[in-house]
């Protein structure tokens, strides 16, 4: 009926068996498969062939994620000589590859500190303030409704500079609003 039953008991379409991808949670759809490509390969040449015959993209190598489910894409002997595609990835000192957006984000994504080393690669880049925030002189972001509220929300008092806080009346008198007047 075009079905393959995984060792775990659930079924998948037969055409998913031996396709180089994990379709059964227990990987039983990739066991005892014949090589599908020349030179005894189970994967396309532009793919990495895992030890368990799964196929992963080359960009998934040495990224700290066990994409092969047997960790063969993260093996020390492979990663110590691997060069990341530096247009999209950052190469850590330990040869791990991380997405460029994780460099200098304040989190040690490399697990060796090399993506956060302020002495060599990170310049001070404050996070951008969002549309309803005010950037203080010290580069902190605060909500715009905290500007001129008689409180130092920035920590450098820049949110209170230039505010009209004088309670003295100027020439021409003060403006008053009357409420709840009774005749």
Automatic annotation (TrEMBL):
The keyword Transmembrane applies. GO terms for biological process: receptor-mediated endocytosis. It is found in: Membrane. The keyword Glycoprotein applies. Signal peptide: none annotated. It comes from the Eukaryota. InterPro entries: LDL_receptor-like_sf, LDLR-related, LDLR_class-A_CS, LDrepeatLR_classA_rpt. Its main location: membrane. SUPFAM superfamilies: LDL receptor-like module. One of its GO terms (molecular function) is hormone binding. GO terms for cellular component: apical plasma membrane; receptor complex. It is a single-pass membrane protein. Keywords: Disulfide bond, Glycoprotein, Membrane, Receptor, Repeat, Transmembrane, Transmembrane helix. Disulfide bonds join 6-24, 18-33, 43-55, 50-68, 92-110, 129-141, 136-154, 148-163. PANTHER family: LOW-DENSITY LIPOPROTEIN RECEPTOR-RELATED PROTEIN 2-RELATED, MEGALIN, ISOFORM A. This is Uncharacterized protein. It comes from Penaeus vannamei (Whiteleg shrimp). The lineage of its organism: Eukaryota, Metazoa, Ecdysozoa, Arthropoda, Crustacea.
């Amino acid at each position: 009926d075009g079905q393959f039953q995984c060792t775990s008991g659930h079924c998948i379409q037969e055409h998913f068996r031996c396709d180089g991808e994990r379709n059964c949670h227990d990987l039983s759809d990739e066991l005892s498969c014949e090589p599908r490509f020349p030179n005894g390969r189970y994967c396309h040449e532009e793919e990495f062939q895992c030890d368990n015959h799964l196929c992963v993209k080359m960009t998934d190598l040495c990224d700290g994620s066990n994409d092969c489910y047997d960790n063969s894409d993260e093996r020390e002997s492979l990663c110590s000589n691997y060069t990341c595609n530096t247009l999209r990835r950052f190469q850590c000192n330990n040869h791990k590859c991380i997405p460029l957006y994780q460099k200098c984000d304040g989190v040690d994504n490399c697990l060796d500190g090399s993506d956060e080393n302020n002495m060599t690669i990170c310049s001070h880049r404050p996070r951008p303030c969002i549309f309803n925030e005010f950037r203080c002189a010290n580069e902190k972001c605060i909500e715009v409704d905290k500007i001129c509220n008689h409180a130092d929300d920035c920590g450098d008092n820049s949110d209170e500079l230039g505010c009209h806080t004088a309670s003295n009346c100027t020439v021409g008198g003060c403006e008053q609003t009357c409420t709840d007047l009774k005749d």
